[in-house]
């Protein structure tokens, strides 16, 4: 006969880390918005970013993303289909922006 899980097998709910992460990710989300607004608002920037990625010029991709106002730590990876930019803040949180070409 199946038994229901014992509610005491898990520690008490503590939301402090979750709430701290939610607070600390807000500036990162603003930086992601800066980047997406730059891509959307500038044909030249969008062209240069995609071109650098297609030519596997990682340093240029990094430089372009930084030039959009991104100051958070980030990692950019790209494929023929998309670019994936993961912005992070310490060990608390990260946000992935995946844009399709």
Rough outline: elongated
Name the beta content range. Answer: 15-25%
| Cα distance spanning the termini | 53 Å
Helix residue percentage: 40-55%
Low-pLDDT windows of residues: none
SSE topology string:
HHHEEE
Strand runs, count: 3
The number of helical elements comes to 3
Structural class, by secondary structure, is: alpha+beta
Main sheet makeup? 3 strands, antiparallel
- Rg, Cα atoms, Å: 19 Å
- Strand arrangement within the widest β-sheet reads 1-2-3
Give average pLDDT, whole number.
Answer: 93
Key attributes of the depicted protein:
101 residues; alpha+beta; 3 helices; 3 strands; three-stranded antiparallel sheet
Describe this structure in words.
This protein has 101 residues and is of the alpha+beta class. Helix content is 48%, strand content 22%. It contains three helices and three strands, in the order αααβββ. Strand 1 (73-78) and strand 2 (82-89) form a beta hairpin. The chain is elongated and about 55 Å long.
Question: Quick recap of the structure?
Answer:
This protein has 101 residues and is of the alpha+beta class. It contains 3 helices and 3 strands, in the order H-H-H-E-E-E. The protein has helices at 16-41, 43-54, 58-67; strands spanning 73-78, 82-89, 93-100.
């Amino acid at each position: 006969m199946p038994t229901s899980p014992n509610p005491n097998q898990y520690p008490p709910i503590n939301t402090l880390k979750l709430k701290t992460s939610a607070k600390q990710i807000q500036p990162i989300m603003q930086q992601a918005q800066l980047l997406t607004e730059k891509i959307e608002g500038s044909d030249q920037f969008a062209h240069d970013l995609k071109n650098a990625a297609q030519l596997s010029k990682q340093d240029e991709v990094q430089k372009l993303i930084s030039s959009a106002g991104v100051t958070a730590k980030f990692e950019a990876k790209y494929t023929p289909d998309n670019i994936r930019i993961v912005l992070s803040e310490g060990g608390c949180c990260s946000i992935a922006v995946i844009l399709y070409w």
